Amino acid sequence: MNNLQWSVVVCVYNDEENIAACLQSLKNQTLSTDQYEIIVVDDGSSDQSAEIIKNINGIHYIYQNNQGPSVARNTGIHASKGEFIAFTDSDCEVSKNWLENLICVFSEYASENIAGVGGMQLGHPDDPDFGKSVDQFLCAIGFVGDYVKTHRKIKPVSHNASCNASYRSNILKNIGGFRHDMFPGEDVDLDKRLIDNGYTILFTPNAIVYHHRPKNSTLWKKMLINYGKASAHNLMIHGPFRVIQVLPIIFLILPFILLGLLFKFSAVWIFSIFALCFIAGIYLLKSRQNLSFMRTVQFVFQTVIWFSFGYYQKLIHEVGRANTRFARLSFFLSYVRISIFLGLAVSALGSFTRSTPFFSSA
């Protein structure tokens, strides 16, 4: 009798450093081994990843020419046999009861409307100090970026990162899996499409993976640029639907807002208020994860600069290659909606300052 309930899909590309530990954590699950399969899709690795994987028993290994993580995940989906499909990354290690805790949520919320369940991602305990600081910062800004969640109970969410996500196989296949030409951000796009089709995505803090963070400034910069590109890509496909998609636009127009305010108020007042707000924001982030003040300032500036750089680089690239009037019009309308919202916010701020004696007398 076939008891297979779960398929776990791991995509790997030149990750000989981490893949063995990842697969060993998957083999050490509390769930009986006859209830799940482990599928590893090698996306054209040129290092020793393939040899390492082949030396581990009980792995369904698939090799493909390099086509990107989204195509690799879809290859794993196509090969899967389980009723549920779970995803983690090759640079992650999962907790021993990871699959059981995902199963518990699907069992407790037995509705077919529940398309997916994801879990908590924590920084890996073996990361260097820089990686641990990145993890603290990601946890601190989780309320904005929605990448690392710190919820303490099961709840509906708009997105679970693909390093710790699971879905009903039939729903995932019916919706077409991951967008093949998109990475990163393909998991955000998938969850958006599921929710738009009436499904619900849940998060549980009990299903935990330990995710290696960027271990130096170069990798951190690369991650921020790629995530900026992903945010812009999703904006162009779906329109604005996440707070983080609006932030680069705010960062771009903020200097002009401050310049405009200088015509009404003294530079000292503007600088003082801006400085107070900035310092208060830094201390808020610092207090959430006990980061040092200077490290928090460093990460904030790096995030603003490199995330925005990737964001606008992607927008400019996509607009430049848009070969139809409709594509350019769709992009333009997305930006108009955001600009109208920000314009109303700025107008409200101006009305407030004009009607407030404190500001009027400045």
Task: Describe it.
The protein has 362 residues and is α/β, with parallel strands linked by helices. The chain folds into 2 domains: 6-214, Spore Coat Polysaccharide Biosynthesis Protein SpsA, Chain A (Alpha-Beta Complex), CATH 3.90.550; 235-360, no CATH class. Helix content is 55%, strand content 16%. It has 14 helices and 9 strands. It has helices spanning 19-27, 49-54, 69-79, 98-108, 129-140, 142-145, 169-174, 186-196, 217-238, 243-262, 267-289, 293-321, 325-355, 357-360, and strands at residues 6-12, 36-42, 59-63, 84-89, 92-94, 114-123, 155-157, 165-168, 200-211. Strands 1, 2, 3, 4, 5, 6, 7, 8 and 9 form a 9-stranded mixed beta sheet that branches. Helix 2 (49-54) links the parallel strand 2 (36-42) and strand 3 (59-63). The longest helix is centred in the C-terminal third of the chain and has 31 residues, at 325-355. It starts with 5 loop residues before the first strand and ends with a helix. The model is unreliable at 358-362 (pLDDT under 50).
